[in-house]
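Lecture 7 notes: from sequence to structure.

We start with a single chain of 286 residues. Read the sequence below before looking at the structure.
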Amino acid sequence: MRIADVVPETGGLWLKSEYAPLSSEWPALSFTRKAVATQIARDFQYGRDVVVLVGTGNDDTPDPSHRGRLLSVVEPLPDPVVPTPDLVPERSWAEAQNKARGRWKLSLPISRLWKPTAEPLPRAKAVAPHTYPLLGQPYRRGFLVPVDAADRAALLNIEIEAVALMLSPRAERLVRQSRLGCMPPALRKEATRMADWLLARASIAPGTGSVGRDAAQRMSDLASLASVVAEAWYVQRGVCVQCGRPMLLTGGEDKHRALPVVGDMSPGWHARGDLRIVHKACLARV
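Now the structure, written as tokens:
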């Protein structure tokens, strides 16, 4: 898989300096100044753009093999800004504050994360020679820098692999709430419709466990599952996994509307992440 596989043709690429690769130990895009979040909310287009994180060239990046290298490719959720301790493990937060008290207090949740597969990690100066030097300009430090058109092809060709994040229940809840809030209204409406359809199916399927056992629980399940459906939509880029044709969010014939599919609906099905989306007309062929 390459960066080009996770960014639409018209999607944006951004560079940002960082001190280490993101992971389950630090599953957040963090910063000290709220102005960074303001820029991301204004300029970053969720569902189309990704940020390529680059290790700083100084001792702030503790691992020498990370300095000046491409560390992570991330899709942050641009809203809301949350306190970093709500997202990162307690131990990681304590270690960070012991090294630099008062920094990185604010964060954005992460929707998706990838890492470069090359060893050693790609040198930012070699891959993005026109954009990389801009990260060092005083007024750009810590902010997103748009990738120069001359560097785009080389960055899109970087080999990556997905990183699975192990989140605390609180962080997982924040991610799903943020993802639902960041998506366009049409997708939010359709994701909620598909989640409702799937929960209704689960409630009558044998051996599926107690989903939606009361109104409050069902609303929680619905919001959580709508977030999962929306993520699948983004991963599939709105294309049916069965026939390879686009699915409609609004309008059109009923057979072209989208429906979610889960292969195994045994207990825990709504947390396993094996959900796919197909046309209603393709459902019988799955």
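The beta strands are 13-18, 28-31, 50-55, 70-76, 82-83, 106-116, 145-146, 160-162, 258-262, 275-279. Keep this in mind for problem set 3.
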